[in-house]
């Protein structure tokens, strides 16, 4: 997310746009009068954040402390001399095997270099999963029970090369080491450009999967075949689901299930302050070639999400560090605790939803949501969801019906009074 995007979105809403324009003007006036604002505000003056090196080092030692739970690997790729490597941490508690297939979860953080807070959430989530820290809201036994059903792969820093650029002082860079936006380099609807396309920020690369980072992630996805995918970003607070490249959510049960999981997270952990819905429909701009659309459409991941975990819209647009990352300790800690907790809830609810479906079948072949399947695990909550949906639809119909009735009445009445008036004048004239 960036200012351009918000402004573009506001084009469709004239009042918001006037407001934003005023705000924008006032902030630029403010900026030009202050000699300090420059995009090279170096983020690492803040003691809250790790450098990429120290973050990865800390993750490696954490994995080393729990060989029964974690393993770590580095995947490498290159394209025309440009090298990329991605560290992947796997949680697979080998001492706790259950007698049904485990749900596979793939989480990626730091796809955009400047979104440092996301990689801190990755590190802390690993601490929580390891049992080294207690998760607020859940007791440790229930966390263990939830985790027993899962194999989780965490990519703590998808875009290491881009992150290095940010650490070298370019705190506004979201692209990879050769200037490509990794969230536009995937194949679904690749390369299509909206009117508000920003060639600098959104450079999709020369072709789908031109970037080794995208190739590695695609390979990881096809090897692991996840049931749940989350790409974690910052810049705003939102829980997004497909699609990014069009203004709709997937039809039928698939879309409904994903949406209800997100609405539940929003209610439980974020006081409903997050935007919820399709990326394309909620942000107000369409994004083409995104990872999450690929995960849903091509890789057939049944639950594919993009979480936007923090944003400060009031920050100066030159100050990317503050726009994308909390700077005070209290906010930093709240973001980490809330989102780590939300992940545990996602694991819990996702397992519940997917557990009823035929995972053994889906293990190697494509997964399809089936109405029957979903009701096996927990009929009550699903029935309630269905009922809620039906009631909601009914309400909408009534609203529409009522509205059109009122409109018709108004038209009818005004017609009558006009006719009456005409009749009256006619009689008067006639007399
Ligand atoms: C910001 O800083 C960079 C180098 O640190 C400098 O080249 C650039 O001119 C500065 N920009 C502004 C607007 O001051
Ligand atoms: C998880 O561990 C089990 C038992 O050791 C093993 O059979 C399985 O292949 C592992 N899965 C992954 C994805 O690493
Ligand atoms: C990704 O970037 C590479 C390198 O620029 C390019 O060759 C490829 O076409 C891009 N693919 C997509 C889907 O953007
Ligand atoms: C779901 O409903 C069926 C009958 O409709 C019942 O046999 C089954 O026990 C229920 N399952 C749960 C988890 O309530
Ligand atoms: Zn991002």
TrEMBL record:
It comes from the Eukaryota. Its cofactor is Zn(2+). GO terms for molecular function: metallocarboxypeptidase activity; zinc ion binding. Residues 1-31 form the signal peptide. Belongs to the peptidase M14 family. The active site is at residue 308. One of its GO terms (cellular component) is extracellular space. Keywords: Carboxypeptidase, Hydrolase, Protease, Signal. Residues 48-334 form the Peptidase M14 domain. SMART domains: Zn_pept. The keyword Hydrolase applies. It comes from Carex littledalei. One of its GO terms (biological process) is proteolysis. This is Carboxypeptidase A6 isoform X1.
């Amino acid at each position: 997310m960036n200012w351009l995007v918000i402004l573009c979105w506001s084009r469709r809403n004239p009042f918001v746009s006037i407001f934003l324009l005023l705000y924008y003007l006032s902030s630029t006036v403010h900026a030009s009068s202050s000699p300090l604002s420059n995009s090279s505000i170096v983020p690492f003056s803040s003691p809250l954040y790790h450098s990429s090196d120290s973050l990865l080092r800390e993750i490696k030692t954490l994995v080393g402390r729990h060989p029964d739970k974690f393993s770590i690997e580095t995947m490498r790729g290159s394209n025309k001399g440009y090298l990329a490597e991605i560290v992947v941490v796997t949680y697979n508690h080998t001492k706790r095997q259950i007698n049904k297939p485990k749900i596979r979860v793939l989480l990626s953080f730091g796809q955009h270099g400047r979104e440092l807070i996301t990689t801190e959430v990755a590190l802390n989530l690993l601490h929580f999963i390891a049992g080294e820290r207690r998760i607020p809201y859940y007791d440790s036994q229930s966390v263990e029970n939830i985790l027993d059903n899962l194999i989780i792969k965490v990519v703590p820093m998808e875009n290491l090369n881009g992150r290095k650029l940010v650490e070298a002082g370019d705190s506004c860079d979201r692209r990879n080491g050769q200037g490509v936006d990794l969230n536009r380099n995937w194949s679904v609807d690749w390369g299509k450009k909206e009117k508000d396309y920003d060639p600098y920020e959104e450079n999709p690369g020369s072709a789908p999967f031109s970037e080794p980072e995208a190739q590695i992630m695609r390979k990881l996805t096809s090897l692991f075949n996840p049931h749940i995918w989350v790409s974690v970003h910052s810049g705003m607070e939102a829980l997004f689901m497909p699609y990014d490249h069009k203004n709709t959510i997937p039809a039928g049960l698939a879309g409904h299930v994903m949406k209800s999981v997100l609405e539940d997270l929003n209610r439980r952990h974020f006081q409903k302050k997050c935007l919820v819905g399709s990326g394309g429909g909620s942000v107000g701009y369409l994004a083409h070639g995104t990872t999450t659309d690929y995960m849903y459409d091509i890789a057939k991941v049944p639950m594919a999400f993009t979480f936007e975990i923090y944003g400060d819209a009031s920050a100066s647009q030159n100050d990317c560090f503050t726009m994308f990352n909390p700077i005070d300790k209290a906010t930093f800690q709240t973001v980490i605790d809330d989102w780590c907790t939300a992940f545990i809830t996602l694991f819990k609810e996702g397992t519940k939803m997917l557990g009823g479906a035929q995972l053994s079948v889906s293990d190697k072949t494509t997964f399809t949501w089936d109405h029957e399947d979903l009701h096996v695990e927990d009929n009550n909550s699903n029935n309630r969801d269905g009922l809620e949906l039906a009631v909601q639809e009914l309400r909408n119909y009534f609203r529409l019906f009522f509205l059109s009735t009122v409109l018709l009445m108004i038209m009818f009445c005004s017609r009558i009074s006009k006719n009456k008036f005409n009749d009256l004048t006619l009689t008067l004239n006639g007399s």
